[in-house]
């Protein structure tokens, strides 16, 4: 029996209507779209004395710390994604999450003045709580009480979220003080010009049904940027070519540092930090699993992801291991949708992603060889494709329209999957009551709505800052 047949049998590839080749292409696609985290996570988490909050280690410069964090980011992604592959057998990839790493550096360390070691301790505790809740089925039970319109809206909301992230990285959409967002200077920005060419090339390949179309589009866009820079058409400062970074493999200053973080902090403040990490990560992961599961046609007739406890456990173990190594919360990535759209249906896709992350340990620049604008073409393509999930919503029923619409709109506008889900969950019982449909609201749905109300009070009232 050859390797291909062994892999197919172990992961039940054919049973899921896939093939080993398709799973490999899907894994490569997912890795390319999320490999930026190896650079972005260390950049966000690394502190610069008197300039930027984050991880600052005595005796090491910011560049050295950033290299350590790059190695830790890869290790955390490998551990979590391997658990996803072999235990959950799902095509979902994991790594330290965006948003949570910013909360870790700028809010917990910066605004609250908490040490980075204590922040890691909070992430570690969060991970242990997740493991316990998942083991007894509590996380799955909570997700099952998600209102039906919210479940059906998550995929479309994530699609819009992916699209805006991609368009910003490509320079097509930029910040504007008057309107928040506006069209970038497309004709004068080399990154935007190459991105637009690559985007429409990828759209054309995808529409033509060419296998690996997203990979081809990303590669072609990267080559165009490299050629324009190499042959002097544009200057290197234009940013068409990705940079590289040297690896520092000694992570001993980070690994295990969370242990010292349990001392010297007031208990209530520590609990609030854990609470915030917990809520954001819980519903980011839940939303991602449901949304990507919808795109993969994994959901049952009630909109639930069968055996969701297994990918949730992979997330919990990844978060705990990541904290022990020295990075912020690990979560399931919405970029997994790119691999799913390429046909990935089993843990073999996740295994390929983990393998590529592991390979990037030996050659860290491998993960940054593809420029950010090129890899994010995939986010726009898949984001647009995921909009088709909107047809599953009962738009002629206002008690579904309002929570679904809030879920879809709040996600991209607040840059948060969790906030979008929260808006839908809070609005659902309110509109049901207003419609006189009291009997359609479960106790669990009321409990979720109240919990999210409390979360928003804690998160936006300044209560965290007041307790430190």
Automatic annotation (TrEMBL):
Return the protein name.
NCS2 family permease
Q: Does the keyword Cell membrane apply?
A: yes
In which family does this protein belong, per the annotation?
Answer: Belongs to the nucleobase:cation symporter-2 (NCS2) (TC 2.A.40) family. Azg-like subfamily.
What is the first-listed, main subcellular location in coarse terms? membrane
Q: Which GO terms describe its molecular function?
A: purine nucleobase transmembrane transporter activity
Q: Which GO terms describe its cellular component?
A: plasma membrane
This protein's source sits in the domain of life called: Archaea
**Compartment(s):** Cell membrane
| Keyword Membrane assigned | yes
Q: How does it sit in the membrane?
A: Multi-pass membrane protein
Q: Which organism is it from?
A: Haloferax marinisediminis
Q: Which InterPro entries match?
A: Azg-like, Azg-like_bact_archaea, NCS2
Stretches that traverse the bilayer? 24-48, 68-88, 95-113, 119-138, 150-174, 186-207, 214-234, 254-280, 348-367, 373-391, 403-429, 441-458
- Keyword terms: Cell membrane, Membrane, Transmembrane, Transmembrane helix, Transport
């Amino acid at each position: 029996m050859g390797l291909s047949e062994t892999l197919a049998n172990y992961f039940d590839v054919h049973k899921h209507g896939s093939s080993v080749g398709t799973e490999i292409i899907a894994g490569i696609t997912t890795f390319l779209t999320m490999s930026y985290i190896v650079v972005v996570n260390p950049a966000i988490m690394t502190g610069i004395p008197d300039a930027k909050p984050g991880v600052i280690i005595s005796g090491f410069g910011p560049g050295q710390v950033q290299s350590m964090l790059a190695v830790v980011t890869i290790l955390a992604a490998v551990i979590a994604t391997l658990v996803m592959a072999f235990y959950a057998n799902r095509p979902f990839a994991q790594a330290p999450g965006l948003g949570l790493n910013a909360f870790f550096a700028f809010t917990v360390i910066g605004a609250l003045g908490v040490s980075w070691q204590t922040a890691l301790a909070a992430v570690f505790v969060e991970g242990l709580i997740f493991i316990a809740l998942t083991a007894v089925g509590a996380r799955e039970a909570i997700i099952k009480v998600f209102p039906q319109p919210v479940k059906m809206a998550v995929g479309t909301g994530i699609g819009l979220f992916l699209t805006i992230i991609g368009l910003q990285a490509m320079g097509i959409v930029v910040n504007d003080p008057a309107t928040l967002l506006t069209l970038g200077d497309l004709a004068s920005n080399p990154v935007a010009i190459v991105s637009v060419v690559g985007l429409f090339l990828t759209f054309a390949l995808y529409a033509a049904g060419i296998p690996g179309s997203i990979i081809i589009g990303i590669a072609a866009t990267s080559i165009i940027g490299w050629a324009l820079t190499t042959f002097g058409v544009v200057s290197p400062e234009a940013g068409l070519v990705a940079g590289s970074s040297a690896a520092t493999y000694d992570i001993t200053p980070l690994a295990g540092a969370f242990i010292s973080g349990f001392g010297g902090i007031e208990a209530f403040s520590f609990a609030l930090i854990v609470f915030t990490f917990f809520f954001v990560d819980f519903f980011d992961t839940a939303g991602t699993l449901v949304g990507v599961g919808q795109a993969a046609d994994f959901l049952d007739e009630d909109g639930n992801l069968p055996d969701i406890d297994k990918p949730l456990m992979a997330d919990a173990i990844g978060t705990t291991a990541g904290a022990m190594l020295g990075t912020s919360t690990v979560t399931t990535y919405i970029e997994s949708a790119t691999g799913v759209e390429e046909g990935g249906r089993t843990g073999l896709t996740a295994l390929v992603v983990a393998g590529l992350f592991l390979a990037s340990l030996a050659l860290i620049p491998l993960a940054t060889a593809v420029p950010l604008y090129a890899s994010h073409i995939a986010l726009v393509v898949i984001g647009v494709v995921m909009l088709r999930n909107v047809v599953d919503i009962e738009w002629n029923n206002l008690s579904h329209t309002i929570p679904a619409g809030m879920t879809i709109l709040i996600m991209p506008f607040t840059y948060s999957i969790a906030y979008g889900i929260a808006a839908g969950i809070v609005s659902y019982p309110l509109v049901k009551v207003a419609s006189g449909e009291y009997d359609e609201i479960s106790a669990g749905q009321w409990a979720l709505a109240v919990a999210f109300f409390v979360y928003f009070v804690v998160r936006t009232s300044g209560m965290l800052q007041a307790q430190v």
